[in-house]
């Protein structure tokens, strides 16, 4: 009922919500509230307790979590939002990473690579990649190679003149060799040349390595944080 590959919509008198598998390697259920208040959240919390299932919310702004917490949900992960103003950015003289339009045809290749980068909890599913595509008007895929081996990737989404670094990572085997800086500089140069105003991204609060990379390249923390809440 809940652990489906694609989003399924559920509607009742207490509210409406969508669910799917969190990803392909955990048994967590992704929960996205469409409408409803504490009654809906308490109902899902109770269902989780009765069935042994675990629901994790979509990203919720930190200042909007009160109804979740008061309904028995718990804060599972905190995500910091960072941004860079591209108007004042100087272009870097680098050999750019490969760039192409990101389409559904890229997903199969990225799923395997994604598993070599992220821990099971943070890995993407096909449905999550499709949702990434649908979230912006334009999407660009950057590929980082070591020789002939694909070792990292980034997805930049854009809507009007604003852009979003949707996904970014280097395979653990190839980290700390400059690939991350090269890939990020390629994204920054591309966005600057496209005349985008800024790039925003979010990353786990406890991921010091990622935050260090982003701030080193000019990103600054915003006042916005997101929380992922869990019934567990």
Q: What keyword list fits this structure?
A:
232 residues; alpha+beta; Aminopeptidase; 2 domains; eight-stranded mixed β-sheet; four-stranded mixed β-sheet; 6 helices; 38% strand
Describe this structure in words.
This protein starts with 7 loop residues before the first strand and ends with a strand. It has helices spanning 38-51, 66-69, 107-117, 126-134, 179-193, 208-216; strands at 8-12, 15-21, 29-36, 55-57, 60-61, 74-85, 98-101, 138-146, 149-159, 162-170, 198-204, 220-230. The mean pLDDT is 96. It has two domains: 8-79, no CATH class; 81-225, Aminopeptidase (3-Layer(aba) Sandwich). The chain is of the alpha+beta class. Helices cover 27% and strands 38% of the residues.
> Which runs of at least 5 residues are low in confidence (pLDDT < 50)?
none
The helix content is: 25-40%
CATH class of the largest domain: Alpha Beta
The strand count comes to: 12
| Most strands sheet | 8 strands, mixed
Q: What general outline do the C-alpha atoms trace? A: globular
Q: What count of structural domains?
A: 2
Q: Strand order across the biggest sheet?
A: 5-12-6-11-10-9-8-7
Fold-level CATH name of the largest domain: Aminopeptidase
Strand composition percent: 35-45%
| Secondary-structure content class | alpha+beta
* Average pLDDT rating: 96
Structural Rg: 19 Å
**String of helices and strands:** EEEHEEHEEHHEEEHEHE
Number of helices: 6
């Amino acid at each position: 009922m809940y652990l489906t590959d694609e989003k399924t919509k559920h509607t009742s008198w207490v509210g409406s919500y969508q669910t799917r598998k969190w990803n392909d390697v955990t048994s967590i259920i992704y929960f996205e509230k469409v409408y409803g208040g504490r009654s809906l959240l308490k109902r899902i919390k109770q269902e989780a307790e009765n069935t042994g299932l675990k629901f994790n919310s979509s990203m919720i702004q930190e200042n909007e979590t009160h109804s979740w917490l008061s309904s028995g949900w718990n804060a599972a992960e905190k995500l910091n939002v960072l941004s860079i103003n591209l108007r004042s950015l100087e272009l870097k003289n680098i050999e750019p990473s490969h760039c192409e339009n990101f389409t559904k045809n890229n997903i199969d290749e990225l799923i395997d690579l994604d598993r070599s980068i992220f821990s099971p909890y943070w890995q993407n599913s096909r449905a999550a990649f499709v949702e990434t595509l649908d979230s912006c008007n334009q999407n660009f895929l950057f590929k980082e190679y070591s020789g002939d081996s694909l070792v990292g990737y980034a997805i930049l989404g854009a809507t009007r003149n604003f852009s979003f670094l949707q996904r970014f990572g280097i395979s653990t085997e190839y980290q700390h060799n400059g690939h991350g800086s090269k890939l990020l500089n390629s994204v920054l140069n591309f966005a600057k040349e496209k005349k985008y105003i800024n790039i925003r991204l979010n990353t786990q609060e406890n991921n010091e390595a990622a935050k260090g990379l982003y701030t080193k390249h000019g990103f600054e923390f915003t006042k916005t944080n997101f929380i992922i809440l869990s019934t567990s």
